[in-house]
Amino acid sequence: SAVISQKPSRDICQRGTSLTIQCQVDSQVTMMFWYRQQPGQSLTLIATANQGSEATYESGFVIDKFPISRPNLTFSTLTVSNMSPEDSSIYLCSVDGAQGYTFGSGTRLTVV
Amino acid sequence: QQQVKQSPQSLIVQKGGISIINCAYENTAFDYFPWYQQFPGKGPALLIAIRPDVSEKKEGRFTISFNKSAKQFSLHIMDSQPGDSATYFCAARNSGNTPLVFGKGTRLSVIA
Predict the structure, then answer these.
(1) Which of A78, A83, B49, B110 could be a cystine partner for B34, CB 3.0 to 4.6 Å?
(2) Cα–Cα distance measured from residue B78 to residue B3, given in angstroms and rounded to the nearest whole number
(3) DSSP readout, B1-69?
(4) pLDDT tens track for B18-46
């Protein structure tokens, strides 16, 4: 199955700043998916990133707050902008590989 | 509207017992039903998955039972072990390269 390297694994950020999360996949994939997992909760889809086109955002998530880049078939970034404590969550990227959907290890973000 | 309903929210099972987690869905376009296991501080890991043309799939101690007419599927963990203590998520996908939608999760505790 596809292996995803996600970084940073965790960060503590000041409110009002931005953090960029990176995901590198060991194989080429068409779609990459970004999820948010709030403490003790399930995974909520933020957006779907297709190489060469604008990301598609789910209801409640907007590009200005969560800009996504997808420069090639193995890499994507998610930026959490103008952060507030409510953005404290785990952020995960995912791909649909040959052996099913795999996930990065997550980025645990704490906003203070 | 939650697309995949998962129960129970938490489960305590004796070591050696059978853990059973249930999920139900409404969207008949779903064509792929995976289960994920997540340990604290880790990303979800694919455990086992099934497609709707199969009623049961077994991998080691893990079995998925699928009832297409009832739009339900369940995970059975046989001979449950303390190392199985984790949060389990069911998920589903529309046909094609689309993102997974997740149930709310079940926190399993296996006690000796």
Answers:
(1) B49
(2) 27
(3) --SEEEE-SEEEEETTS-EEEEEEE--TTEEEEEEEEE-TTS--EEEEEE-TT-SEEEETTEEEEEETT
(4) 999 999 999 999 999 999 999 998 999 99
- What's the pLDDT at B1? 60
For residue A94, what are its two tokens? 């995912």
Contact B43 A108 (CB under 8 A): no
Question: Is-contact B49 B64, C-beta < 8 A?
Answer: yes
B34 reaches A (C-beta below 8 A): yes
The residue among B37, B100, B104 with the most chain A CBs within 10 A of its CB, best to mutate, is B100
The answer to whether the beta carbons of residues B80 and B110 sit under 8 Å apart is: yes
User: How far, in Å, CA of B55 to CA of B73, rounded?
Assistant: 9
pLDDT digits (tens, 9 = 90+) for A42-93: 999 999 999 888 999 999 999 999 999 999 999 999 999 999 999 999 999 9
Residue A58 Cα, gap to closest chain B Cα (Å)? 11
